[in-house]
Amino acid sequence: MPAGQLRFILNFAVPLALAMGLSFALYLTLTWSARQSDHLAQERQSQLVTLIVSNMQADIAHDQESSSVWDDAVRVVMSETPDREWLENNLGQWMQTYFQHDGAFIVSPKGDILLGFLDGQTDRHVAYARIADVARPLIEKLRSRLARQDNTGVDDHVLSIGESDIGSIGSRPAIVSLKPIISDSGKVEQVPGREFIHIAVRFLDGSFLDTIGRDYLFENLRFTPIGAIGDSQSRAPLRTVSGKLIGYLAWAPFRPGTAVLSNATPFLAGGAVLLLVLTGLLGALAWRRSSHLVRSRRQLENMANSDGLTSLPNRASFSRHLGAVLAKRQPADTVAVLYLDLDRFKEVNDTLGHPVGDALLVEVAARLRETIGPSAGMAARVGGDEFTVAVAAADIRAIERLCEALVAAVRRPFVIKGHPITIGLSAGVAIAEEDCRDASELTRKADIALYHAKTAGRNRYAIFGTHMDELVRARREMEQDLRMALEGRQQINVHYQPVYSAKDQTLKGVEALVRWRHPQKGAIPPDVFIPVAEETRLIEPLGEFVLREACFAAVHWGDLTVAVNASAIELRNETYAMRVLSTLNAAGLDPTRLEIEITESALGDDSDHCKRNIAALRAVGIRFALDDFGTGFSSFGRLQSLDVDRIKIDKCFVDGFGKPGGNEEIVRAMIKLAQAKGLRTTAEGIETPEQNAVLQGLGCDDLQGYLLSRPVPAEAINAMLADGGLTARA
Predict the structure, then answer these.
(1) Which of 267-281, 289-303, 320-334, 627-641 has the highest mean pLDDT?
(2) What is the DSSP letter of 458?
(3) Closest CA relative to residue 514, chosen from 480, 483, 549, 555
(4) What is the pLDDT at residue 272?
(5) Are strands 386-393 and 377-383 parallel, antiparallel or unpaired?
(6) What confidence tens digit (pLDDT) does each residue in 333-345 have?
(7) Average pLDDT over the chain, rounded to whole?
(8) 563 — phi, psi (to 5°)?
(9) Calpha distance 712→498 (Å, rounded)
(10) What is the C-alpha to C-alpha distance for residues 216 and 202, in angstroms, rounded to an integer?
(11) 1-33 burial, b for 16+ CB within 10 Å, e for fewer?
């Protein structure tokens, strides 16, 4: 073969053939990969739709329990003449407006329809006829389980058994969910299998599909009956519990692989010459992706070991570090764990918002690092506003000096986004004994010491001692005693502190205050057991008890107003407004005579449940008062937006009257500001005639305090009204 031909073959033909072959092979590979990618994407979308429908079934059942597990509901449906308006408001329209259910029904043990509407149809019998074929077998199955007292599936989150299925209502797919209407306290007697049944209906088309399509980027999501589905559509079958196919949820398929292939095809068509360029580009892309994966892996490792907000080590990293320190410690080393918690941090979040709170945590972390130094120990954020420090020092005195420095560092004022903020720091310290190797036990002791520091007054530190375990045991005992007291309701009672007009000293109303007299320990102050109730969520049954007692007592007190306190925990419960209205209705008390006292922390609720509850209650005439006004971070600035009718001036301001640098001008400003906003004012803690006179002169509306009257039982208010004792003693 001539040398020229050989060079042509070697230099052009062979590379061209190789390029063409590689291009073809690459095209086949990309085509196969695109099909696999399309198939996987469609499979995942189908699984996602199935999961969304399943979660919707669980959510509907959970929504029902907000009203179906309720003593009042049981009493109404079991009465000889059920209050249909009450049922419509609480088990019908409530479900539609609050949870967007399309239909609701109540079926009696005899099969009568007490309540019913469906998708605009308000005739209960006509509406029930549309769902009867789906509902009847579910009713029979649920009644059979109720009769057998089968509680399968009931736990702390699922309060009652139920049945649910997907069926066709006309030509529309829908979830039909059944729940028995049962007692939440267990005190209303019901015959198993003879309970009234609540039915909720949610159509799986229309607004439901619009929301899913928008939230999860499904294109043209719709319901398609059997036989109308096309091969070009992605689908997820809708089946009943028995496995019967009723149709499909269909959408335009997502084909990421096809999109990639269509974009890559023009490059492949360029031929063998462009293969080298493409290979270089692909190599560069592969290098970039590899570098990105390396960086991502490093970031993931960093995230696994550090806190994303403050960049401090996290709990897991701290535990490993402390374990290593304990394992290699020398006999002369003094190893300690400091458990730190910020004082009043929750108020920052509630009043100034979480962005300010997050920025404050970053600043606190910087101060902790600066105070500890690069070699003295390791600080970590273990969650929320809690931090830990592992330190090895020469002696205990060095650890005490570090604690003092940390407390002082955090007490220095912060300025976050223009807001001056002053918080504190409480610290618990646990010193490792010579044979200590258990990091979790050492941290537990530091946590116990922290609890001791907080109960001793905050802004301080405490070193763990064996007596502290007894303190924790005592707190757990108090929680158990409080729980038993609420169940028996013999130890808990309500006293009422009169509220008088500042102008003429006449009785205007009362404030309900809870009291607890333990059979062995005697009277336990509210400032001792209320924090325990809030930490354990016992505050909700406690608050409900006080509200009910106060409303039933106030019915006999003419036109006196009655004020009750509501914690932020109660107001964040989505059913709070409904329960208050139910109590007023049961007592027969005019809503305009009830005033609910709240704090600023309730108004910082991100979920908006507080605002919705307040708006719903104010709409019927219930008034709200802002308690402890002036003691928060931004009371004056936020008064413009607070949805309240009255402010209560805290006792700490009244105590300063008549002293150098007293608070008269501050209180004057509070009253003027309230008057400008059309709000009424009440001053608390009036203990001297001088304080009484000053507040009268400043234009305060109402007064309460020991000078005027101490809190007294309801019988004393009855006697006061019977004797005409409507004027204060001062």
Answers:
(1) 320-334
(2) S
(3) 549
(4) 44
(5) antiparallel
(6) 789 999 999 998 8
(7) 86
(8) -110, 135
(9) 8
(10) 19
(11) eeeeeeeeeeeeeeeeeebeeebeebeeebeee
Q: What percentage of the chain exceeds 90 in pLDDT? A: 48
User: What's residue 632's pLDDT?
Assistant: 57
Antiparallel, parallel or unpaired: β 646-649 and 680-683: parallel
pLDDT at 157: 83
d(CA 653, CA 661): 11
Instruction: Write the DSSP symbol of residue 90.
Output: I
Which residues have CB under 8 Å from 329's CB, separation 6+?
Answer: 335, 392, 432
Is residue 267 predicted with pLDDT exceeding 50?
yes
The residue type at 225: P
Give the whole-angstrom CA distance, residue 279 versus residue 103. 61
Interval 600-613: pLDDT, tens: 766 655 567 888 99
d(CA 288, CA 293): 9
Q: In what order do the strands lie in the sheet with 234-239?
A: 219-224, 245-252, 234-239
pLDDT at 276: 54
Stated as kind and residue range, the H or E segment containing 691 is helix 689-698
Q: How many CB atoms lie within 10 A of CB 193?
A: 15
Q: What is the pTM of this model?
A: 0.49
Judged against a pLDDT cut of 80, whether residue 124 lies above it is answered with yes
CA distance 365 to 312: 7
Please, are residues 682 and 695 in contact by the beta-carbon 8 Å criterion? Answer: no
Vertex 661, ends 659 and 667: CA angle to 5°? Answer: 90
Residue 509 scores a pLDDT above 80 = yes
Query: Per the structure block, which two tokens stand in for 686?
Result: 């009036």
Return the exposure string of 458-482: e unless at least 16 CB atoms fall within 10 Å of the residue's CB, then b.
Answer: ebbbbbbeeebeeeeeebeebbebb
Give 610-667 as a DSSP string. HHHHHHHHHTTT-EEEEEEETSSSSHHHHTTT---SEEEE-HHHHTTTTSTT-SHHHH
Q: How far is CA 49 from CA 215, 248, 307, in A?
A: 12, 10, 34
Cα 548 from Cα 563, distance rounded (Å): 12
Q: What is the largest CA-CA distance in the chain?
A: 133
Side-chain-facing half-sphere of 131: CA atoms under 13 Å: 33
CB 616 within 8 A of CB 97: no
pLDDT digits (tens, 9 = 90+) for 528-546: 898 889 888 899 999 999 9
In 664-729, DSSP assigns E strands to: 680-683, 702-703, 712-713
**For residue range 401-457, what is the model confidence (pLDDT) as tens digits?**
999 999 999 999 999 988 899 899 999 999 888 778 788 888 988 988 888 888 777
Evaluate if residue 1 carries a pLDDT over 70.
no
With a CB cutoff of 8 Å and minimum separation 6, the contacts of 180 are 68, 142, 146, 160, 161, 162, 195, 196, 197, 198
Identify residue 185 by its one-letter amino acid code.
S
Residue of 46, 100, 101 lying closest to 239 (CA atoms): 46
Q: Detail the DSSP E strand segments found in 320-433.
A: 334-343, 377-383, 386-393, 414-416, 419-421, 424-431
Using DSSP's 3-state secondary structure scheme, residue 14 falls into helix
Q: Which of 402, 338, 395 is nearest to 376 (CA)?
A: 402
The amino acid present at 691, given as its one-letter code, is Q
> Beta strands 461-463 and 424-431: pairing type?
parallel
